[in-house]
């Protein structure tokens, strides 16, 4: 027919599609067999809860623990979840069989409808399959755990967020793309990064920048050309595709990964997600996290140096697991900012910043490092902090280097954004600060 558009499916897409279809068939054939044999329809899968998330200290990864859950159709408390899981599985299977590429939003709408049923007393009920997208998203994550397959491997798409530029040639579908020829723009990291093939690379490391605005400035400055780097932005909290892409660059191309984020609890957590993984996706940390990633800045010692904390080391005896002598042995640090520049650029931390910092490092560090005069002056802040008493913090932040960083944060109640370094001049950020920190190994592991 004239004007008919023929669908072109790449060979790598077809392999992923066929593999996912086979896994779905195998899993749900076994469920159908149970029903035919007159057994209770039950789904058994790992529990995706905080208490079943463990930190593997040796491999530096957040992993899903051994606890399992049983989701039974004949249990009144689990029937709805059971229904949702099977409904989502059938929608995904149909999309795979029909050569479609649904988004997570599509799956939400395709499955949302009202079920009308009668109870044992003959009363009519109306119930939605799900009400909000966060419900259907949670069901997709359950299926990932149950099937052992990432949603990206099932060709389920999400909104593109991360961007990359550099001397890297990739193959996406049947197209070869040179990421050094993006003009002033950049390549948007696609939602299915495992379907990308790395064809050629000429780079010495990967720099991941939290802020898109800083990424654009570095790109236009030609940072990646001068420094032989792959430049990436997560544009804030990283999505799954960006994390997986970064992991592949490290794992397959053996490129070291450096993270540049704000000097605040949210920037530090973004680094943590890239390096260790996240609690929500702990079941996929082995494919999404990059344990060897390094945090190059912005650090509190870049802003203040370490003199401010050295005067207080003798008062830090109450911090568990770390001795004051260990902190004293850390290399001395001089600040990149003068006192005048600090006055121009630092931002006063808000109570929510302080609370988040306590969650990262633990209450004992906050108590030892916070200025008592500030707490006496601010009773509301003191009460908020008191509510965090007993929090142990994340174990991967309980290192001498991070304790020093967070202690300076609590001592000064200050934070600083990457843009402050650029305010000293883009040339300073691109040609001195970043290259110097990498060359001398001034990072936190």
From TrEMBL:
Transmembrane segments: none
Molecular function GO labels: ATP binding; DNA binding; DNA topoisomerase type II (double strand cut, ATP-hydrolyzing) activity; magnesium ion binding
Spo11/DNA topoisomerase VI subunit A N-terminal domain mapped to chain residues: 80-156
Cofactor(s) needed by this chain: Mg(2+)
Claim: Transmembrane is one of the keywords in the record: no
Active site per the UniProt annotation: 109
Residues of the Type II DNA topoisomerase VI subunit A all-beta domain: 160-202
BP terms from Gene Ontology: DNA replication; DNA topological change
GO cellular component: chromosome
Binding site for Mg(2+): 210, 262
Annotated EC: 5.6.2.2
Sorted UniProt keywords: ATP-binding, DNA-binding, Isomerase, Magnesium, Metal-binding, Nucleotide-binding, Topoisomerase
Positions of the Topoisomerase 6 subunit A/Spo11 TOPRIM domain: 205-326, 379-438
Catalytic activity: ATP-dependent breakage, passage and rejoining of double-stranded DNA
Enzyme class of the recorded protein, top EC level: isomerase
InterPro entries, alphabetized: Spo11/TopoVI_A (IPR002815), Spo11/TopoVI_A_N (IPR013049), Spo11/TopoVI_A_sf (IPR036078), Topo_VI_alpha (IPR049333), TopoVI_A (IPR004085), TOPRIM_Topo6A/Spo11 (IPR034136), WH-like_DNA-bd_sf (IPR036388)
Pfam families in UniProt: TOP6A-Spo11_Toprim, Topo_VI_alpha, TP6A_N
Highest taxon of source: Archaea
Functional note: Relaxes both positive and negative superturns and exhibits a strong decatenase activity.
Similarity comment: family membership: Belongs to the TOP6A family.
HAMAP family: Top6A
Subunit relationships: Homodimer. Heterotetramer of two Top6A and two Top6B chains.
PANTHER family: MEIOTIC RECOMBINATION PROTEIN SPO11
Protein's recorded name: Type 2 DNA topoisomerase 6 subunit A
Source organism per UniProt: Staphylothermus hellenicus (strain DSM 12710 / JCM 10830 / BK20S6-10-b1 / P8)
Biological classification of the source: Archaea, Thermoproteota, Thermoprotei, Desulfurococcales, Desulfurococcaceae
């Amino acid at each position: 027919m004239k004007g008919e558009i023929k669908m072109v499916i790449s060979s790598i897409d077809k392999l992923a599609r066929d593999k996912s279809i086979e896994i779905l068939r195998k899993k749900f054939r076994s469920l159908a067999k149970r029903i035919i044999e007159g057994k209770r329809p039950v789904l058994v899968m790992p529990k995706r809860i905080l208490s079943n998330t463990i930190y593997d200290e040796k491999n530096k990864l957040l992993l899903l623990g051994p606890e399992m859950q049983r989701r039974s159709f004949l249990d009144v408390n689990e029937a709805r979840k059971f229904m949702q899981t099977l409904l989502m599985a059938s929608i995904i299977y149909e999309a795979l069989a029909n050569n479609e590429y649904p988004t997570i939003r599509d799956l939400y709408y395709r499955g949302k409808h009202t079920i009308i049923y009668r109870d044992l007393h003959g009363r009519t009920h109306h119930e939605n399959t799900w009400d909000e997208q966060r419900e259907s998203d949670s069901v997709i994550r359950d299926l990932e755990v149950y099937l052992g397959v990432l949603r990206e491997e099932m060709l389920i798409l999400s909104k593109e967020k991360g961007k990359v530029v550099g001397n890297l040639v990739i193959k996406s579908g049947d197209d070869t793309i040179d990421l050094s020829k993006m003009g002033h723009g950049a390549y948007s990291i696609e939602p299915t990064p495992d379907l990308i093939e790395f064809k050629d690379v000429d780079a010495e490391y990967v720099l991941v920048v939290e802020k898109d605005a800083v990424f654009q400035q570095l790109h236009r400055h030609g940072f990646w050309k001068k420094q032989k780097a792959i430049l990436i932005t997560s544009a804030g909290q990283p999505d799954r595709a960006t994390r997986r892409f970064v992991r592949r660059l490290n794992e397959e191309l053996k490129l070291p990964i450096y993270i540049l984020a704000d000097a605040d609890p949210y920037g530090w957590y973004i680094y943590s997600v890239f390096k260790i993984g996240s609690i929500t996706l702990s079941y996929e940390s082995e494919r999404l996290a990059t344990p060897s990633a390094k945090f190059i800045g912005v650090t509190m010692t870049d802003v203040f140096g370490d003199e401010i904390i050295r005067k207080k080391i003798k008062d830090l005896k109450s911090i568990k697991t770390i001795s004051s002598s260990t902190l004293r042995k850390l290399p001395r640090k001089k600040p990149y900012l003068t006192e005048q520049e600090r006055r121009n650029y630092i931002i006063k931390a808000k109570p929510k910043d302080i609370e988040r910092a306590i969650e990262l490092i633990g209450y004992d560090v906050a108590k030892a490092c916070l200025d008592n005069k500030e707490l006496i002056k601010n009773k509301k802040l003191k009460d908020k902090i008191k509510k965090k008493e007993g929090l142990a913090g994340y174990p991967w932040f309980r290192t001498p280097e991070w304790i020093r960083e967070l202690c300076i944060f609590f001592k000064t109640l200050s934070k600083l954004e990457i843009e402050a370094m650029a305010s000293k001049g883009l040339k300073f950020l691109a040609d001195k600060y970043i290259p110097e920190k990498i060359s001398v190994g001034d990072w936190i592991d």
